[in-house]
Structures are given as structure tokens and as C-alpha cells.
């Protein structure tokens, strides 16, 4: 996703060559991309934390099953 974002921003024409409508269009997409990226990163962080917790939980269950009484 970051690669695609970088490509989009790198391919943007010089603002002095854009019509007001196209400038507005690019600004709208830039905002949308940034918002989407922030939401995506936040969600991935939440999922990552959830899976770390779940993995630790499953690891403890496996240890308890392999070594009962410890």
C-alpha cells in the first residue's frame, strides 16, 4: 500500500500545470488516501495486538497440555 501511495504522489503533475478542478481532484484523493492509510494502519495494529495475545494464550494452552502439572 505504501508503495502505491508513493507512486501516486510521485506521479502527480506539477500543480502549476493543473486546472483548478484537477487540483481539487488531486487534493481530494490525497486526503482520501491519507485517511484510508491511517485507518488501515490503525486496524492492522489492533489486529496485530489481538493475534499476539491469542498466540500467547494458545502457547500457554499447548504448554499446559504437553506438561501437565507444571
Helix percent reads over 70%
Give the termini separation.
45 Å
Q: What is the radius of gyration computed over CA atoms, rounded to a whole number of angstroms?
A: 23 Å
Strand content: under 5%
Helix/strand-derived category reads mainly alpha
Poorly predicted runs: none
What keyword list fits this structure?
single chain, mainly alpha, cytoplasm, cytoskeleton
Helix-strand blueprint:
Elements (H helix, E strand, L loop, with lengths): L1 H9 L9 H47 L4
Task: Give an overview of the whole structure.
It is found in: Cytoplasm, Cytoskeleton. Pfam families: KMP11. Belongs to the KMP-11 family. Keywords: Cytoplasm, Cytoskeleton, Microtubule. This protein has 70 residues and is an all-alpha fold. The protein has helices spanning 2-10, 20-66.
Quick summary:
The chain has 70 residues and is mainly α. It has helices at residues 2-10, 20-66.
Amino acid at each position: 500500500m505504501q508503495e502505491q501511495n508513493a507512486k501516486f504522489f510521485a506521479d502527480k503533475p506539477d500543480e502549476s500545470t493543473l486546472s483548478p478542478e484537477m487540483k481539487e481532484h488531486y487534493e481530494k484523493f490525497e486526503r482520501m488516501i491519507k485517511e484510508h492509510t491511517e485507518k488501515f494502519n490503525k486496524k492492522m495494529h489492533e489486529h496485530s495486538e489481538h493475534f499476539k495475545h491469542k498466540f500467547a494464550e494458545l502457547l500457554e494452552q499447548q504448554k499446559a497440555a504437553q506438561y501437565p502439572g507444571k
